Amino acid sequence: MNSKLLLIICSACGLLAQDLQTRIVARPAVDISKDWYLTTWVIGNARLQTTNNVNIFPGVGYRKERWWIEALVQRQWSRAGNQWMLDFRFQTRIGERSTLYIEPSPLLTRKGFYEFVIYERRMWKRLNVGVETENIHRPGLDTIGVGPRVSYPIATFGKVKLTTALAYRMHRRERDLVRLDVVFSRK
């Protein structure tokens, strides 16, 4: 993708949003058999307006050619309070150009349930366009966010893949959010 186009998209989204979030994601994995592996997700969330947090998700995964599933335990640290959660992640290819990612997560420290869903379709070369929703269901008001996203795999270094994603999520009762992800994962 042209760097000028990415800059224009980021600037426009930043002007529209009330909060900007940048996430650095690392996902190392170690094979324990042909299909099974151990993994850990490490995610740092930096936001301009709302609380920052850091998350570590150790767990186990199982993969086949067109899909993978992981069961993880999540620990989150933030000024708003620390939490424990169970976390399940599933991704599958739909046809040759689309992917679906689903992440349900029951909260253990507080009552609630978290869910994150992404659907993307490759539109041109490696550029993917899609939609994402990130929701937290708790007693009282739920947090619901949905909006468009674009992602682009930048490079591969051996078995490590570097990908960026930009999403704009609209919220009904909260600040809209622009999120830029930088993801380092095992290919």
Account of the 3D structure:
The structure is a single chain. The chain is mainly β. It has one helix spanning 3-16, and strands at 19-27, 29-31, 36-47, 53-63, 67-78, 83-94, 98-106, 113-124, 127-137, 143-157, 160-171, 177-186. It has a single domain (3-186), classed as monomeric porin ompg (Porin, Beta Barrel). It is built from 1 helix and 12 strands. It has an 11-stranded mixed β-barrel. Strand 6 (83-94) and strand 7 form a beta hairpin. It starts with a helix and ends with a strand. 14% of the residues are buried. Residues 1-8 have low confidence and may be disordered.
List the helices and strands and how they pair.
Blueprint: H1 3-16, E1 19-27, E2 29-31, E3 36-47, E4 53-63, E5 67-78, E6 83-94, E7 98-106, E8 113-124, E9 127-137, E10 143-157, E11 160-171, E12 177-186
Parallel strand pairs: 1-12
Antiparallel strand pairs: 1-3, 2-3, 3-4, 4-5, 5-6, 6-7, 7-8, 8-9, 9-10, 10-11, 11-12
